[in-house]
Amino acid sequence: MSRSIWIILGVMAVGLVLLVLNDMSGDVSGLSSDTFGRVLYLGIFGAVVGAGILGSRHRLGDVARNLALWLLVILVFIAGYQYRYELQDIASRVTAGLVPGSPLSITDSDGRTTVTLEKMPNGHFEARISVDGAAMQVLVDTGATSTVLTANDARRAGFDPETLAYTIPVSTANGNATAARVTAKELTLGAITRRNVTLLVAAPGMLDQSLLGMNFIGTLSGFDMRGDRMILRD
């Protein structure tokens, strides 16, 4: 075993002994036990890295370049974590611009979420939601009491329209219809999620597009429309 390894082990042993002996007082050579422990840890880490560099046969220039590269990678990861909310907002904005109806989710430092929807060319607000993991395009209808799925969307979400009992009368843009009641384990709009949501499934052929109704919107802290935008606040 090389001399440098013995020196490192000796420093570790002395440091640990000092920490144990001064644990009750909470002070080691004028430093708090926590501070001394961090200094000891960083010193040992630096000594190990330095010993590895000196013991290697690589040129110092190559070693310095590799260390700088790893330092850059670490800083990128740290910056990504610190600015994770801002990066999420950027990703949401890009997606909202590329995919019509994609919700723009913004989460502030307190964890509060707002979702913004852009008005579609047809003059309505539509959104891409997920019901039990199945993505679908829905019309946001603040005049609808319940969220109503078409038979096709219900099938994608794992419900079998052929086995449902259509006994609930509903009023749609196409007139009166009947629907069946089901429960979704999870309904997600952007970064807003609700669990165990009661939904209606329209009888096959009775509804052209699924509706996001007030039984979901009413669970939010608020919503408002500003020009061509609808803002939903969790």
TrEMBL record:
It comes from Mesorhizobium zhangyense. One of its GO terms (molecular function) is aspartic-type endopeptidase activity. GO terms for biological process: proteolysis. Keywords: Hydrolase, Membrane, Protease, Transmembrane, Transmembrane helix. This is TIGR02281 family clan AA aspartic protease. The chain crosses the membrane at residues 5-24, 36-55, 67-83. Residues 136-216 form the Peptidase A2 domain. InterPro entries: Aspartic_peptidase_AS (IPR001969), Clan_AA_Asp_peptidase_C (IPR011969), Peptidase_A2_cat (IPR001995), Peptidase_aspartic_dom_sf (IPR021109), Retropepsin-like_bacterial (IPR034122). The keyword Transcription regulation does not apply. Its EC number is 3.4.23.-.
